[in-house]
Design goal:
Helix content: 40-55%
Strand content: 15-25%
CATH topology: Rossmann fold
CATH superfamily: Flavodoxin domain
Largest sheet: 6 strands, parallel
Oligomer: single chain
Length: 198
């Protein structure tokens, strides 16, 4: 069975919703999936300045384990998910990625499949840049980057050719098309990982 790690950070639940939709697609393609949420790197007083942040973190941290280096070793494919933080990957997910230096030094992730997705609060909030900034880390770790492309008709309705995206400001839920695009990403990454494993 193809093993897929989805390592993400979500503050309000939008990136979490994309991660869950990607997981559904991966499972539908026959993958075993681990959903992991990166942990906060800021103190409680900073979190308190954004209404609902601490409560959402508590809820999600109870649902998802934190990603580990062992999760990355276990996986055939690693899919990274980050909200847009001023147009780049968030510090919470980046902190986990930065902790993979030992695996990088040993070439332990070389040849695995990598992909990325992102959510923002506003249109043109940097989702494509966030995905591409995650690709940089995937490339340094030696992963084979798999974009969504326009290989499924749903990609003409939502997402980007780079990965699943959503702009969900003001608490908007994902659209059906955004969920379908995320499902496609999970299926596509699983299919490619399965093919590479032979």
């Amino acid at each position: 069975m193809t093993k897929v790690l989805i390592a993400f950070y979500s503050r309000t639940g939008s990136t979490e919703a994309l991660a869950k939709a990607i997981a559904e697609g991966a499972r539908a393609a026959g993958a075993e999936v681990r959903l992991r949420r990166a942990r906060e790197v800021v103190p409680a007083e900073v979190m308190a300045k954004a209404p609902g942040w601490a409560e959402a973190a508590e809820r999600m941290n109870a649902l998802y384990e934190a990603p580990t280096a062992e999760d990355a070793l276990w996986a055939d494919a690693i899919i990274l998910g980050s909200p847009s933080r001023f147009g780049v990957v968030c510090s919470e997910l980046k902190a986990w990625i930065d902790g993979l230096g030992g695996l990088w030094a040993g070439g332990k992730l070389v040849g695995k499949v990598g992909s990325a997705f992102s959510a923002s609060s506003v249109l043109h909030g940097g989702n494509e840049m966030v995905i591409q900034s995650q690709w940089v880390s995937l490339a340094h770790l030696g992963l084979i980057i798999v974009p969504t492309g326009y290989a499924d008709p749903v990609m003409f309705q939502a997402g980007t050719p780079y990965g699943a995206t959503a702009a969900t400001g003001q608490g908007r839920a994902l659209t059906d098309a955004e969920v379908a695009a995320a499902n496609w990403q999970g299926r596509r990454v699983t299919q490619v990982a399965k093919a590479l494993r032979g």
